[in-house]
């Protein structure tokens, strides 16, 4: 996190609202640290995401726990588009298969 005075919730809130597409994941886009995070990155790239911001939850345990509380979702990765929580790897995959993910991303690009 960037500042000692900023809470984890404030950091997460600012990150998801200041960037059109954010993925909280294990690892980085270049080096995902779990299969689910890797799959999420592949699906986002397949849907033409250009400006993706990723947050490696393995670098900060407070963020790792905080994102679960923020979204009320127990697992990582977590995708946010336009400040809205979309879901995890399974939901991203289902949305990709139905074409819904591409539509959502096109309106945000």
Task: Lay out the secondary structure.
Layout (H helix, E strand, L loop, with lengths): L7 H11 L2 E5 L9 H12 L5 E5 L4 H11 L6 E4 L2 E4 L1 H10 L1 H7 L3
Parallel strand pairs: 1-2
Antiparallel strand pairs: 1-3, 3-4
Low-confidence stretches: none
Listing every helix as H and every strand as E from the N terminus to the C terminus, the arrangement reads: HEHEHEEHH
CATH architecture descriptor text? 3-Layer(aba) Sandwich
Shape: globular
| SS elements, strand count | 4
What is the fold named in CATH at topology level? Glutaredoxin
Overview in brief:
The chain has 109 residues and is α+β, with helices and mostly antiparallel strands.
Can you describe this structure?
The chain is an alpha+beta fold. It has a single domain (8-104), classed as Glutaredoxin, CATH 3.40.30. The protein is 47% helix and 17% strand. The protein is built from five helices and four strands, in the order αβαβαββαα. It has helices at 8-18, 35-46, 61-71, 89-98, 100-106; strands at 21-25, 52-56, 78-81, 84-87. A four-stranded mixed sheet has the order 2-1-3-4, with helices on both faces. Helix 2 (35-46) links the parallel strand 1 and strand 2. Helix 1 crosses helix 3. The model has no long low-confidence stretch (mean pLDDT 93).
Keywords:
about 110 residues; alpha+beta; Glutaredoxin; four-stranded mixed sheet; 4 strands; about 45% helix
């Amino acid at each position: 996190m960037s500042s000692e005075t900023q809470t984890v919730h404030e950091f997460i809130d600012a990150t998801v609202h200041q960037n059109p597409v954010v993925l909280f994941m294990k690892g980085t886009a270049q080096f995902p640290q779990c299969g689910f995070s890797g799959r999420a990155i592949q699906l986002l790239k397949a849907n033409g995401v250009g400006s993706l911001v990723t947050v490696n939850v393995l670098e900060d345990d407070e963020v790792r726990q905080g994102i679960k509380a923020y979204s009320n979702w127990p697992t990582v990765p977590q995708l946010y588009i336009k400040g809205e929580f979309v879901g995890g790897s399974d939901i991203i995959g289902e949305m990709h298969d139905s074409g819904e993910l591409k539509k959502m991303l096109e309106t945000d690009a």
